[in-house]
From TrEMBL:
Pfam families assigned to the protein according to its UniProt record, in alphabetical order: LytR_cpsA_psr
Gene3D superfamilies from the UniProt entry: LCP protein (3.40.630.190)
Region (Disordered): 62-81, 325-376
Composition bias type Low complexity, residue spans: 330-356, 367-376
Top-rank taxon: Bacteria
Protein name: Cell envelope-related function transcriptional attenuator common domain-containing protein
Record InterPro entries: LytR/CpsA/Psr_CW_biosynth, LytR_CpsA_psr
Domain called Cell envelope-related transcriptional attenuator: residue spans: 80-235
Family membership: Belongs to the LytR/CpsA/Psr (LCP) family.
TM region(s), chain numbering: none
Amino acid sequence: MLTVILVTQLVVAMLTATTVYAFVRQLDDALPPGVEIPHVEGEKPEVEGPKEPLNILVMGSDTRTGEGNQIDGESGSDGSDTTMLLHVSADRKEAYGVSLPRDAIVDRPDCVDEDGRDVPGADDVMFNTAFSVGGPLCTIQMVETLTGVYVDHFIVLDFHGFKAMVDAVDGVQVCLPKEVDDPEHGIYLPAGTHELTGQQALNYVRERYTLSVTGDIGRMKRQQAFVASMINKVLSANTLSQPTKVRNFLKAVVGSIQVDDELDRVKDLADLAMQFRETGLSNIKFITVPIEEYPLDPNRLQWTTDADRLWKRIIADAPLGRTFSGGSISAAKPPTSESPSTSPDASPDTGASATPEQEEQAETARAEALANGLCA
């Protein structure tokens, strides 16, 4: 889950390369062999310049098999609990992640799974069924077909790996506008600002029944806020500059991920991560693909026509721009601490010179944050 943090954290981890290279070589055996991506278009479009943009599809598996994945009484569906398309600009100055709702209704194309088996497509099905019937490769082929975006790499992380990665950095700060008391799913979290450990963090990013009134939409927003907070902690405080934390983090990573055949050595991951050294926190943002209610089922979603404009920006290696960056969550200032605006009776904190229009916009943003289970 939320494996986009892997790339960013490895940037810092490998800055201490002299202390960990010997250990890294030992870890290569624990990293499963990578899988070749059967691209829909075959060849990647050519671009000018010394570097090319990168698109990395990161997926979180909800499997309950394997060490540390028996997190509840559920069996899981071997589906994709979370999917995010991470775009990295050719100059490595900007990176943005686009959350793809698992409940969005799409037309899933024919695909080929990891075993070379042909998997027939289906119309009007949930997005995450591609992972259930054909694993990450079918998800990639579906994303490429629906968006026209060439996926360079993929990473899949399970529950155990996510928890271990959070614990390796001594927890991640979040802010809950209200208490979570969800006995049906065994999730209990107090209101306020907290440093969550691995299991608590997993509960937080999976909770979608109590914190928000927007269901999966709110859950995606909180996942984005969590990733932003984790990146902020790691890069701002050099959290992984300590050899012990580096070792713990790397062990958590290699034992819990699945990757493509160009990332199946720890050195490959490190080399990729080192390219992110020029990416500033303010230029790491997270958004959700433009969505709306699916007309045939109010409990499902569908991409809007604006999504096509977003895919074109990614293909052209263009920044998000004002249209798509509005409402984004930035790693430079994630919504992870309490403020007076979290109180329903609080007045807008927009400054003495704020215009009525600005005050209205700020109030709308606060209301949206609270609806999604985030502190305003």
